[in-house]
Amino acid sequence: MILTRRSFGSLIATAAASRLAPAAPLQDPGRKIGYCIVGLGRISMQHFMPATRMSRRSKVTAIVSGHRDKAEKWAADYGVPARSIYSYENYDAIADNKEIDAVYIALPNSMHAEYSIRAAKAGKHVLSEKPMATSVADAQAMVDACRKANKKLMIAYRCQYEGTNQRAIQLIRDGKLGKIESIESSNGFNIKAGEWRLNGKLAGGGPLMDVGIYSLNACRFLTGEEPVELKGYSSVIDHDGRFNEVEENLAWTMRFPSGVIASCNTSYGASLPGFYRVHGTKGMMHVEPAFGYQGLRLTANISGEPPIDEPNPEKDPAQFPREADHLADCILENKEPKTAGEEGIKDMKLMMAIYKSCGRA
Ligand code: NAD
């Protein structure tokens, strides 16, 4: 599938429009941004909330959950008053809570748009988990709602704020690998039955939307380019009921304007290492794990230079305060997030194009 000038034209127009958005008034730069956690699942309870304890500029000030008793336990742990616990039904009342500056949306994928848009209407900034939404139209509606409300919208692309991935980008930009020729990447796991991730309506797709997106986003941030052509293949091998609504395996290739070819694999049927390998005219760089919460490792063999081997000692949840504090910085200093809604829309458009190429859209 060739990606047309027109589809890229609309991306550029969207980005330009966001730069024209009126500036929000500067706020007290010394204070911490209060986050309302929307959804008490794995990512919020095990990673994001503990990370706020390590953050410079972020704290938990409210919780939204369908389970009041669970919410009360977590609220007590984070010093959140009972009046700042909300359900999905009375969520819009966050508008009246001055302790909430931003929401962190950690719900199943198809719910990101609704809860982001309701937050913007309530006058709150938004940090939404990836994938941004389950359709390009929903993703665009999130951008439009936040722009209309003059609120920041950031997509939680954790790896773009992480040191090993930033080092990988720097090595490429510094020309250490020479001219980049190709990239390989994979990310996948063997999913258990019963997960919302297997429900087409809630997930919007299978492993591509959930974990393949890491490879897609990495190919874009490593090259600093947008693909101009792509092809995808998907399959279901295990007819055990898990893959009635979403794909099991998906492989895709992309060609970038410079000529870099990327080949990526994702799966819900097998544990694929989360890695990327970048081949250049002067050497090869391998990052594995590249997308995990800890234990990241970058190795490189560059001709004429000693081998590089850089294990990252950082422990989970150290990656998360960076994204929370990045949005906090953007709110307090009135800057545009590095991974704003437009970045999420680019991945959404590409994932939809990959599904179309696989005959799944
Ligand atoms: P999870 O299943 O552990 O949590 C989902 C939460 O949503 C739960 O609190 C659940 O009660 C709530 N919920 C509300 N309505 C629901 C419904 N109709 N069905 C199911 N749950 C419902 O999921 P998770 O792993 O925490 O993932 C949440 C989001 O975070 C997803 O969008 C996922 O892609 C993203 N995520 C991001 C990362 C990352 O590293 N950035 C890692 C894992 C998950």
Average residue-wise pLDDT = 94
Portion of residues within helices: 25-40%
Assembly category: single chain
Main β-sheet, spatial strand arrangement = 8-9-10-7-11-12-13-14
- Spans of at least 5 consecutive residues whose pLDDT stays below 50 are 5-25
Gap between N and C termini, in Å?
Answer: 13 Å
Q: Specify the number of helices.
A: 10
- Beta-strand level of the residues, as a percent range? 15-25%
Shape: globular
> Which ligands occur here?
nicotinamide-adenine-dinucleotide
- What is the helix/strand order? HEHEHEEHEHEHEHHEEEEEEEHH
DSSP, total strands: 14
Largest sheet: 8 strands, mixed
How large, in whole angstroms, is the Cα Rg?
20 Å
Q: Strand pairing plus helix content: what structural class? A: alpha/beta
Characterize the structure shown:
- By secondary structure, this protein is α/β, with parallel strands linked by helices.
- 34% of the residues lie in helices and 22% in strands.
- It has an 8-stranded mixed β-sheet, with helices on one face. Strands 3-2-1-4-5-6 form a 6-stranded parallel β-sheet, with helices on both faces.
- Helix 4 runs parallel beside helix 5, helix 5 runs antiparallel to helix 10 and helix 6 packs across helix 8.
- The protein is globular and about 60 Å long.
- About 6% of the residues have low confidence.
- Bound molecules: nicotinamide-adenine-dinucleotide.
